[in-house]
């Protein structure tokens, strides 16, 4: 018998991967969980009444643009049915997850309970009512998990899964359910085994292959939520299957079509940042839509602070992170922001201010996300960073690869040099060479990093193994690539184990 304490402990452990997805959902706005199982109902086609009305569609478009007042205005004249309840809940959960305002949590959950009760009593026919019921229950699970109510969130997640499962079985042609079904199939199927057992205990197994198939159905055929399906699929393929060009091309096209859409602008900045295009990302940030009509999105300032740090604009980076912390009400990314404030002060030569921000890392925020974990580990290790290696890392992250190699030329290994720095130096060279397209040099320095690392608890060796797997995969050397992906999985403790293991596991699945 599994105790409630064990459920709390395991959900807290597995929450990192789940929370990453839920925080993605705070920008993609909606998800659902489910897999196909034995048929409980005779399949029925999705009727015309299952689509959103024109007013509901307008309201949902405003939700996606993050313009809550405009969305509510459209909902005032919308019919009182499942579509209106669903869009209203999308608006509530978006505002809650984006603001991370704990003071709003109870009111949002209470409104969700009221909507669910209304849907339960409704005799409205068609897939939309059943879909809205499962989606709103999922939104409730998201709110509960993000705000620390893990056991309640686990139960809501299970209910949502079972309900969405029934929607897919009864209405197999209803594409929005395919989208949400597929996303959760993919997510659960891609989790490391150490996390999946708990979700299986809840009756939530998964399948990467089936998930991708379902998402592609929803992304390639017209439906009310096709844009979501396209975005989710593109972002998953960019993150886990190394298809950055397709994801960036999609968000660039959407941004040209909808320059007033704050969600699309956020995704454009995020993609440009991930692809090391700092100048373009900052340009998009500075021209992003803003004003009283838009939902405040403080995380944009945190991203901008990173971009400015890459450029060596330490004062501007500090101002952007301070703006983020001033307006952000959540607990995630606070440690990461304090760490970046530390870096800006330290690299500027302000030791007193740097120490103040170093202490702030430990004093605020949570360690659920990998970025916050990394910052907390830096605080606890008390091992000073190397200024040359830190500058080189920031230059590489910003896309300034040749400048990073020049910076690395001034690094010298001495007898007293810590092991962490001995590993970081060849790893940074490897990253710069890889991103410049110099694969032979990259392989050389990645291999050197692995040879030096042994079982050291740093991410440089497992990341080197993962990148070597990708490099050999591109060259068609499948056996060698497989060896390195398995090696990446073999490291037991490091800062980015969850994401590294997920990527290595998915790469291996491509050959099964």
Calculate the mean pLDDT score and round it.
88
* Terminal Cα span: 35 Å
Query: Which class do the helix and strand fractions yield?
Result: mainly alpha
What's the main sheet like? none
Shape assignment: globular
Amount of helix: over 70%
List the helices and strands and how they pair.
Blueprint lengths: L3 H25 L25 H11 L3 H9 L5 H18 L5 H17 L5 H20 L3 H21 L4 H16 L2 H9 L6 H13 L5 H16 L2 H14 L4 H13 L3 H9 L12 H12 L3 H14 L6 H14 L3 H13 L6 H12 L5 H12 L2 H8 L10 H18 L2 H15 L6 H15 L3 H13 L6 H13 L3
Give a quick set of tags describing it:
512 residues, mainly alpha, Serine Threonine Protein Phosphatase 5, Tetratricopeptide repeat, 72% helix, DUF3808 domain-containing protein
Protein architecture, described:
The chain has 512 residues and is mainly alpha-helical. Among the domains are: 4-41 and 55-174; 298-381, Serine Threonine Protein Phosphatase 5, Tetratricopeptide repeat, CATH 1.25.40; 412-509, Serine Threonine Protein Phosphatase 5, Tetratricopeptide repeat (Alpha Horseshoe), CATH 1.25.40. It is 72% helix and 0% strand. It has 26 helices and no strands. The chain has helices at residues 4-28, 54-64, 68-76, 82-99, 105-121, 127-146, 150-170, 175-190, 193-201, 208-220, 226-241, 244-257, 262-274, 278-286, 299-310, 314-327, 334-347, 351-363, 370-381, 387-398, 401-408, 419-436, 439-453, 460-474, 478-490, 497-509. Helix 4 (82-99) packs antiparallel against helix 5 and helix 24 packs antiparallel against helix 25 (478-490). The longest helix is centred in the N-terminal third of the chain and has 25 residues, at 4-28. The radius of gyration is 23 Å and the shape is globular. 51% of the residues are buried.
């Amino acid at each position: 018998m599994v105790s409630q304490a064990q459920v709390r402990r395991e959900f807290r452990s597995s929450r990192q991967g789940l929370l990453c997805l839920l925080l993605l959902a705070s920008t993609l706005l909606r998800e659902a969980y489910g897999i196909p199982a034995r048929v409980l109902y005779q399949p029925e086609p999705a009727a015309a009444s299952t689509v959103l009305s024109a007013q509901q569609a307008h309201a949902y478009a405003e939700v996606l643009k993050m313009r809550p007042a405009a969305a509510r205005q459209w909902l005032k004249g919308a019919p009182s049915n499942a579509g209106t309840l669903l869009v209203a809940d999308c608006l509530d959960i978006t505002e809650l997850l984006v603001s991370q305002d704990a003071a709003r949590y109870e009111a949002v959950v209470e409104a969700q309970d009221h909507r669910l009760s209304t849907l339960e009593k409704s005799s409205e026919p068609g897939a939309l009512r059943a879909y809205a019921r499962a989606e709103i229950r999922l939104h409730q699970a998201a709110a509960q998990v993000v705000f620390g109510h893990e056991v309640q969130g686990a139960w809501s997640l299970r209910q949502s899964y079972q309900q969405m499962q029934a929607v897919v079985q009864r209405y197999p042609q209803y594409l929005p359910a395919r989208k949400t079904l597929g996303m959760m199939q993919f997510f659960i199927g891609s989790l490391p085994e150490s996390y999946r057992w708990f979700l299986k205990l809840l009756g939530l197994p998964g399948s990467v292959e089936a998930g991708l198939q379902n998402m592609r159905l929803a992304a390639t055929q017209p439906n009310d939520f096709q844009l979501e399906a396209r975005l989710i699929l593109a972002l998953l393929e960019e993150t886990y299957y190394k298809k950055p060009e397709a994801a960036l091309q999609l968000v660039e096209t959407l941004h040209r079509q909808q320059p007033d859409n704050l969600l699309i602008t956020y995704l454009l900045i995020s993609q440009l940042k991930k692809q090391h295009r700092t100048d373009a990302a900052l340009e998009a940030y500075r021209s992003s839509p803003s004003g009283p009509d838009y939902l405040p999105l403080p995380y944009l300032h945190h991203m901008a602070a990173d971009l400015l740090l890459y450029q060596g604009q330490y004062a501007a980076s500090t101002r952007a992170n301070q703006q983020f912390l001033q307006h952000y009400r959540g607990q995630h990314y606070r440690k990461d922001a304090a760490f970046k404030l530390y870096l800006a002060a330290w690299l500027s030569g302000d030791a007193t201010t740097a120490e103040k921000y170093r202490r702030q890392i430990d004093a605020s925020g949570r360690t659920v996300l990998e970025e916050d974990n990394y910052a907390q580990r830096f605080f606890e290790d008390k091992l000073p960073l190397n200024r040359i290696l830190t500058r080189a890392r920031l230059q590489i992250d910003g896309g300034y690869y040749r400048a990073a190699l020049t910076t690395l030329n001034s690094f010298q290994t001495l007898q007293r040099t810590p092991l962490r720095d001995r590993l970081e130096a060849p790893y940074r060279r490897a990253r710069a060479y890889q991103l410049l397209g110099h694969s032979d040099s990259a392989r050389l320095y990645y291999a050197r990093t692995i040879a030096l690392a042994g079982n050291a608890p740093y991410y440089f060796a497992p990341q080197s193994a993962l990148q070597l797997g990708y490099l050999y995969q591109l060259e068609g050397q499948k056996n060698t690539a497989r060896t390195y992906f398995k090696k990446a999985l073999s490291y037991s403790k490091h800062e980015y184990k969850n994401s590294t293991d997920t990527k290595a596991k998915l790469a291996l699945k491509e050959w099964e």
